Amino acid sequence: MAIIVQSPSPSLPPPANTTGLMGWMRQNLFSTVGNSLLTVVLFVGIVSLLIPLVQWAFIDADWVGTTRDDCKSGGACWVFVNVHFQQFMYGLYPEAERWRVSLVAVILVITLAALMIPKIPGKKYIGIFALFFFPIVAFYLLVGNRFGLPHVETNLWGGLMLTLVIAIVGIVAALPLGILLALGRRSKMPIVRSVCIAFIEIWRGVPLITVLFMSSVMLPLFLPEGMDFDKLLRALVGITLFQSAYMAEVIRGGLQAIPKGQYEAASALGLNYWQSMYKVILPQALKMVIPGIVNTFISLFKDTSLVLIIGLFDLLAIVQAAFSNPKWLGFAVEGYVFAALVFWIFCFSMSRYSQHLEHKLRTTH
Amino acid sequence: MEQEKNPIAITLREVNKWYGEFHVLKNLNLDVSRGERIVICGPSGSGKSTMIRCINRLEEHQKGQIIVDGIELNNDIKNIDQIRREVGMVFQHFNLFPHLTVLENCCLAPMWVRKIPRKEAEATAMEYLERVKIPHQAKKFPGQLSGGQQQRVAIARSLCMKPRIMLFDEPTSALDPEMIKEVLDTMIELAESGMTMLCVTHEMGFAKTVADRVIFMDGGEIIEMNPPDEFFNHPQHERTQLFLSQILAH
């Protein structure tokens, strides 16, 4: 039988019961008897868990006050967080100097916003400021000892501020180092390659706690007498090197996924090694492993709380110190919930931004 | 401009190459004059791609001499870079840079290798995109174009470096039949402009139209090399006859 179409068939709308809220629910929640049952059971389960949580955290909670005696209603005692809030943010940073920390935070937020909002022009210059000038400004503001600012020792730093300092320095330093290590591991030069492999495998094979202990306890043993450098600095170096090894492996995965033809096309056009890496290979490889890179960033951010064991008071450590105070004994739950919430906000933001970035950089249909 | 006067664009002398134990290229000898168009054909695995990939050193030959534009290819990176600047290459799978727009693909090498300012590079790129008939796609990404369009962009990208020699490595093999013609037309136009071209291809129509010489390779050797008339009408070697009867039969 021969078929000859005279004119293209018109497009028809989909059947009514497959679209809209009812359609969606029928398809996804109540498609069979078993699925309907499952939906109801899970719904009941979630609600019965949420009600007491909301009751504890909001309805029965105490928000204002100055001492533990203000918490009488039996719910969460947010007074505890309220009273210690400054301490959670700044640690033991002298009260009179806290404006310096806030100023750094404000500059940072403005710079990041300017970098992330697509409409703002001059990204190149903002980027240069963020990478090269901001660290200098932040360093002198936070450490002081120059420009008439009193010196603030790093052992007074603490709370969220310390967490952010460690996380941001770690992230900013580990990424380029990781890129270099990943390239080195794929290098044709045997010595460069062996050094990179050894570096990556040694750091990856050691727990971060060990690294931190070694940096704070062992390193001074090897240094000549009288030579001592800052505990925070040592922790920063340790965390950066540790995370750069992980970063290197994530990026290497991306490099390996780039087809050989891309390298060949770049060489055939006359681009040298660094040019083809910078303009052709890395932009594609990094884009491909954004989820992995952000994963490493997030784990780095959370790992900062390990500095507690070498006597640095990050957010978690300072919260723990606060509820160990005899005057506030018994508010561990509130403290942990608060710390968890702060960590979650930062990590979730990173995760969302990475998804946005992935979407923005997509260049196919 | 000593090189301009040199009538020989490419010389291969006793070129040999091995992949481990496997002898891929056996004693190749070839002189390509400036402006000459050469088509290379042969069964798969005959070493034809490997041969042209040796000319811009995507592959390394192990014995013999390759002289391109008066410069001998050896381990000196400076020489390799200099030759790659003058030799354009078009690949079977296009190998466009997917993260860059069509225009950026074309401007990348002129700006970074030749240090040409962006404005000028973009003007040149538009000129060549015009020539391959896709100027209106300049702002799109390669992934948004058809295979034939991508291959024409790849040709324009190579031409933006103003190469003296163009190498084509099976440029139409990955294309749908209806797109082969648009790419071949672009290549014919390029051939008519006097570009020195080496094409590995199975498009015998193209060979008949533009080639000055057709080379048949098998087992890593040049079996037969003749002008197209001679090559297609009176193939000398029996392997050439067999190959031609197979590909012209369908």
Descriptors:
heterodimer; A: 365 residues; mainly alpha; MetI-like fold; globular; B: alpha/beta; Rossmann fold; 6-stranded mixed beta sheet
Chart the SSEs and their pairings.
The complex is a heterodimer of chains A (365) and B (250).
Chain A lengths: L19 H9 L4 H27 L18 H13 L7 H19 L6 H21 L15 H27 L4 H15 L3 H15 L8 H27 L2 H9 L4 H16 L1 H14 L9 E2 H10 L7 H29 L5
Chain B lengths: L1 H4 L2 E12 L2 E12 L3 E5 L6 H8 L7 E6 L2 E2 L4 H10 E4 L11 H11 L5 H14 L15 H13 L5 E5 L7 H16 L3 E5 L3 H7 L2 E6 L2 E6 L1 H6 L4 H12 L1
Parallel strand pairs in B: 3-8, 3-9, 6-7, 7-8
Antiparallel strand pairs in B: 1-2, 1-4, 4-5, 9-10
Helix pairs in contact in B: 4-5, 4-6, 5-6, 6-7
What does this structure look like?
The complex is a heterodimer of chains A (365) and B (250). By secondary structure, chain A is mainly alpha-helical. Chain A has a domain at 73-93 and 152-221 and 228-361: MetI-like fold (Orthogonal Bundle). Helix content of chain A is 69%, strand content 1%. In chain A, helix 3 (78-90) packs across helix 13 (315-324). The longest helix of chain A has 29 residues, at 332-360. Chain A is globular, with a radius of gyration of 27 Å. The mean pLDDT of chain B is 89. At the A-B interface, helix 10 and helix 11 of A face helix 3, strand 6 and helix 4 of B.
Strand content of chain B: 25-35%
Q: How many strand elements of chain A? A: 1
CATH superfamily of one domain in chain A: MetI-like
Percent of residues in helices of chain A: 55-70%
**Computed Rg of chain A:** 27 Å
Largest interface: A-B, 22 and 26 residues
What is the typical, i.e. mean, pLDDT of chain A? 85
Subcellular location (chain B): Cell inner membrane
GO molecular function, one term (chain B): ATP binding
Protein name (chain B): General L-amino acid transport system ATP-binding protein
InterPro entries (chain B): AAA+_ATPase, ABC_ATPase_HisP-typ, ABC_transporter-like_ATP-bd, ABC_transporter-like_CS, MetN_ABC_transporter-like, P-loop_NTPase
